[in-house]
């Protein structure tokens, strides 16, 4: 893990001591500078290698983004090098699912992190890879209290044997995903990543998504539709064609799309998916 290159990528110049201040600053820089995107699965490129070298090459050196398995494993490598104790957690997404928590369970296709700070008893939940509603700050991994992030308030509740993460969106508590706190090995994450990046029905294979968190807004792109959520209001932009979407990916989200063969043609095929 090349920490200097990673810090330059996320614009972080603060302390490297394993403290809550450092954790909060690294999470903020990461969510502001490395976008969520699924261009590799959309182009038929499986995301199978979650090693430090592969993730640093893609998300740092090549200035691409990625999805949860890429973001949160990169974050884990960085935090571990800084002296934090970090466990991988597996989750089941319920966000935007009409059946919500009461429907049939989805597969475990999300990854988050439990981070322990030296000298602090309770762990923190860190998740820099949940797309449009990703946590912009670490929160304590405790059930009950409402916890303010750099953006919306969040809270944790119990759901059977698991936890459920909820966000206050449009004045309503919305469940995002359930997760357990048993540490999971990298191989479990590799299996999940292979599934979501190759399964023919995966949303990452059949549609385009991108997201970025700024100081005061959330930028969410689905197909040709861009939504910018800020100060309780939403600005919506509908792009005419794939060329405009590609321009937004490059200039609004900061994704280096050079060298992605056939990307404009593929985007044109999923503009309304």
TrEMBL record:
Keyword Glycosyltransferase in annotation: no
Superkingdom of the source species: Bacteria
One GO MF term: acetyltransferase activity
Coiled-coil segments on the chain, per record: none
Keywords: Transferase
SUPFAM superfamilies: Cysteine proteinases (SSF54001)
Keyword Lipid biosynthesis belongs to the record: no
Family: Belongs to the arylamine N-acetyltransferase family.
Descriptive protein name: Arylamine N-acetyltransferase
């Amino acid at each position: 893990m090349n920490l200097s290159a990673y810090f330059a990528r996320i614009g972080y110049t603060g302390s490297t001591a394993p403290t809550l201040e450092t954790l909060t600053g690294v999470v903020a820089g990461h969510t502001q500078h490395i976008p969520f995107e699924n261009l590799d699965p959309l182009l038929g490129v499986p995301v199978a290698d979650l090693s430090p070298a592969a993730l640093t090459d893609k998300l740092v050196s090549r200035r691409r983004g990625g999805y949860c398995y890429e973001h949160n494993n990169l974050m884990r490598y960085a935090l571990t090098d800084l002296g934090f104790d970090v466990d991988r957690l597996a989750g089941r997404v319920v966000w935007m699912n009409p059946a919500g928590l009461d429907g049939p369970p989805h597969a475990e296709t999300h990854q988050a992190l439990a981070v322990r700070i030296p000298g602090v008893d309770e762990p923190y939940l860190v998740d820099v890879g949940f797309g449009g509603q990703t946590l912009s700050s670490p929160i304590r991994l405790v059930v009950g209290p409402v916890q303010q992030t750099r953006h919306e308030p969040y809270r944790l509740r119990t759901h059977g044997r698991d936890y459920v993460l909820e966000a206050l969106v449009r004045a309503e508590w919305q469940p995002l995903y359930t997760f357990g706190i048993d540490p999971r090995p990298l191989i479990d994450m590799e299996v999940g990543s292979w599934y979501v990046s190759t399964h023919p029905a995966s949303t990452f294979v059949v549609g385009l998504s991108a997201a970025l968190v700024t100081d005061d807004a959330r930028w969410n792109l689905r197909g040709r539709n861009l939504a910018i959520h800020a100060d309780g209001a939403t600005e919506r932009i509908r792009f005419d064609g794939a060329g405009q979407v590609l321009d937004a990916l490059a200039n609004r989200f900061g994704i280096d799309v050079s060298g992605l063969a056939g990307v404009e043609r593929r985007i044109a095929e999923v503009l309304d998916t």
